[in-house]
Sequence to fold (86 residues):
Amino acid sequence: MTYVALVGLTLILVRGTIFQPLQRRWPALFQCSQCTGMWVGMAAGASGVAATGHGLVVDALLAGAATSCLSLVTDAVLLRLLGDPD
Fold:
């Protein structure tokens, strides 16, 4: 359930219109669901939100990788089903 929330947060950061100033300022980060998912997951793992019990560094890497992959797949599926919002 935690990873569903992290993917949701990632998609809000990447696709949300409220974050357009960030998306324009750092387009390489905030327009890529895989990149943003990595940083969202790493922050969640390092803070203990997505803890696996292997230590903060390993938790950050595992959560970052998982959120990155899940965000990429989710974004691709939603783009395929709903179309590109632009």
Helices lie at 2-15, 20-25, 27-30, 33-47, 56-82. The longest helix spans residues 56-82. The two ends are 30 Å apart (CA to CA). The CA atoms of residues 7 and 71 lie 5 Å apart.
